[in-house]
Records
---
Amino acid sequence: MDVISALEQLAPELEKGLAEVASSEDLEALRVEFLGRKGRLAAIMSTLPTLDAADRPKAGKCANEVKGKLTELFDARKERLLADVEEKFLKGFDPTLPGRRPWEGSRHPITLTMEKICSTFQSLGFDIESGPEVETDYYNFEALNLPPEHPARDMQDTLYLSDKVVLRTQTSAVQVHTMEKRRPPVAIVAPGKVYRRDSDVTHTPMFHQVEGLMVGEHVTMAHLRGILTAFSQAMFGAETKVRFRPSFFPFTEPSAEVDISCCLCKGKGHANGTPCRVCKGTGWLEILGCGMVDPAVYNYVGYPEDITGFAFGVGVERVAMLTYGLGDLRMFFENDSRFLRQFA
Ligand code: DAH
């Protein structure tokens, strides 16, 4: 009987095929060929209804047995294949190898620098203050004694949100907020973001400042010198020399810029006979602006006339570049994880 012998051929042929199986893909191909809906067993079974009624029960029984046998062969091979894969994996697996550590996040160098600046002033008795990044013209300019025609108010530098509202261009605005809500004596630092319409190799439209303010009775320029010298030496090392250079800011009188001795050439201006690349051969690096608060500012905030004090503004990116010896400001803002990881 053709059907029976065709059925009986299937198991030995599947066995031959299974012996050559090398992967689960091979195995699946064989399963489809023999046991699939359009496979060889199904093809034979579809002919059963055409048999004589007398032959049908025997052929049907045989077909069921073959199906059972094929499934058994197939399952056994599958189990062995899985065992092989596991064995191979375990052979190449060394349980004594150390695990792989996931990357830990770290704080941004600008954050680290800002925190170091602030904690240095906190240790000198200063409080931390903050103010809004969206400011009115009044706080950012007018109350800081910047008259309407002052060049710093130029559309070129300031990002205006409307006629009288700006993104603050300087943390000096926090001085005004602080003096409005606190009576002297006051000693604060205010870290934060500032914004300017400026973008090139040495400028970014957003950067960070730490503002400082100390006002009370009998606060003098000597205090300013003492505090900023202590700050500079805490940040850049005890051997750091500090120089005050006359300058101008609308909200301080007199005003100065503070230079520190160059951290690379130690103030010599040159290394091995060539001009120092960090200080450009001068031996000095500018790190902040400062001065005695102009009495005009006290008028705006309603402070009495016998109050004196000083203010200063530190550029955080500048200090961070000097601290970490970086030559390119843009690295801070590209967020390349290879760069950031080094500060973990
Ligand atoms: N606000 C100034 C700037 O952005 C920096 C500054 C200079 C702040 C002198 C001060 C100061 O408080 O007294 O360039």
---
Amino acid sequence: MAKIIVLMGAPGAGKGTQARLLQERQGLPQISTGDIFRAMKDAQTPLAEEVRAIMNSGKLVPDEVTIRVVEERTSRDDCKHGYILDGFPRTTVQAAMLENLAVEQGKKILSIVVDVPFEVLEKRMTGRRSCPICGEIYNIYFKPPKNDNVCDLHPDAQLIHRSDDTVEKAKVRLETYAQQTRPLLDYYQKTNRLHRVDGTREPEAIYPDVERVVKSDE
Ligand code: AMP
């Protein structure tokens, strides 16, 4: 049965990096609701305006909007043989919706949490920078680029500091996660679908653990 791989973890835990590696190496599409909303917020529509304001505050986009986006994206052809969800579900309502979607699509849900202590997360978030061309992720504390603020592979491109990666916003996002999303770990645990990987290591050291879970009971 095709799988829906739910990558979970606090903001800054590195779930996006693992999702990208899985996409590259397993050929499954990575669906990041955060990326979809970031692309959407530049449009000149009332919805885009609303999404922009919510994202800038570090809070969550309403469930109805998020659910619609996920339904639309996962109904496309490339998702037929399974897909990776990065940043969804984040609330119990979204988790319930995903159960229905999985039944409709004939897929099974498998959840992986990238575990990182809260103290490490704050530095990871506020230090994060990314290349606007290739999406490569750097960190000014843990993985600085060779030259200040430019991508190693695209020296003409200034790295981007996400507007919600500032210290105050990082705090709100971590609190939002603790209140609304962390309870979902219990939910997947109780239904025997939760797999934990130690996220304090380098991405390449974490990846084999993630891949092992994805390939288990195939
Ligand atoms: P991320 O890149 O996953 O950290 O997401 C960035 C922002 O997009 C979040 O702080 C939320 O405002 C919004 N967002 C992303 N995914 C969701 C979701 N599943 N539900 C609600 N809001 C979301």
